[in-house]
Amino acid sequence: MPLLFDWPFPEKPSIFYKAASTVTIGLAGSLSRLWMKYLTSVRIENGEILHNAVLNRDPDRPLITVANHHSCMDDPLLIGATLPHRVFWNRPLMRWSLGADDIVFTVRKHQLFFSLGKTIPVTRGDGVYQRSMDFALEQINRGEWVHIFPEGKVNLTKELMRLKWGVGRLIAEANICPLVVPFYHLGMDSVLPNQPPYYPQMNQKVSIYVGEPLIFDELVQKMKKENRSLEEIRKTVTDRIQNEIAKLKTKCEELHKKHLADDSTSS
After folding, report:
1. Quick check: is 9 in a domain?
2. Range 73-107 burial, b when 16+ CB lie within 10 A, else e
3. Partner of 259 for a Cys bridge, out of 43, 79, 86, 236, CB 3.0 to 4.6 A?
4. DSSP state of 160
5. CATH classification at residue 215
6. Does 157 have pLDDT greater than 80?
7. How many domains does the chain have?
């Protein structure tokens, strides 16, 4: 289905658009960091991996981060929890994110806010070749950072889900294979509950476990030389990411259990 609104990103952004976008991203990121630092207890394992990927990777290599999705505030709060303020005010350095058009782009003011915040509207069910995924691939081919929740929705049960193949397409069809950094988190659904009245809660506990970077250059090149279809490559890449997410889930559950136990002991 086509989007029910005009495509929100100008082909040639003006200086005023870029300024408005910088302020939107900067304020959202800074407020998220303040909330997560002072009003939430956050424990992060291997946070330096994400720092290095965002700040110190080869400038020609794009970045994809993937994570589980437990709350509608996972982005921007998780980004705020893991990165320094200076990243939020550097618009070219900040991530593009994918958001469901029927949730975050439902009214005009939301369309404006989220598009200025570098959120790409995705129509769930329209597959990997919709305009939104084409646009995300364009950003990857410019060497930028795209963040994805490949479960495709807020996972209320926290059980492992089959990941969507969109992330596989962005890796399989990129001009330069992206660096992929997976991470898993727990506790975000206590910061913003998934039931009414949907108000953010203070003094909650969040744990984040960042995994080792994944590099798919050799795998993708090998499969292309074998004349494998793009669908096969997408599936193989997505399956590997899913396996890493499963490993991180177990590690994050242990981290979160210790986090909860330490806090209860200290109190």
Report:
1. no
2. bbbbbbbbbbbeeebbeebeebbbbbbbbeebbee
3. 43
4. -
5. 3.40.1130
6. yes
7. 1
Model pLDDT for residues 28-52, shown as the tens digit of each residue = 999 999 999 999 999 999 999 999 9
CB 213 within 8 A of CB 50: no
Q: What is the DSSP string of 118-157?
A: TEEEE-TTS-TTSHHHHHHHHHHHTT-EEEE-TT-S--SS
Local structure of residue 92 (DSSP, 8 states):
T
Distance CA 16, CA 160 (A): 43
Measure the CA dihedral 83/242/165/230, to 10°. Answer: 110
Tokens standing for residue 77: 């709060």
Kindly state the tokens that stand for 87.
């990243």
Structural domain boundaries, residue 156 = 15-266
- Do the domain assignments include residue 1? no
Q: Do 236 and 253 form a contact (C-beta atoms < 8 A)?
A: no
Predicted pLDDT of residue 118: 98
Euclidean distance between the first and the last CA atom of the chain, given in angstroms as a whole number = 52
Please give the mean pLDDT across all residues of the chain.
95
C-alpha closest to that of 140 among 197, 101, 179: 179
Tens digits of per-residue pLDDT, 180-200?
Answer: 999 999 999 999 999 998 999
91 lies in some domain: yes
Q: How confident is the model at residue 5 (pLDDT cuts 50, 70, 90)?
A: confident
Please count the other Cβ atoms lying within 10 Å of the Cβ belonging to residue 151.
19
Would 2 be classed as within a structural domain?
A: no
Work out whether strand 179-186 and strand 96-100 pair parallel, antiparallel, or are unpaired: unpaired
Q: How far apart are CA 143 and CA 180, in angstroms?
A: 13
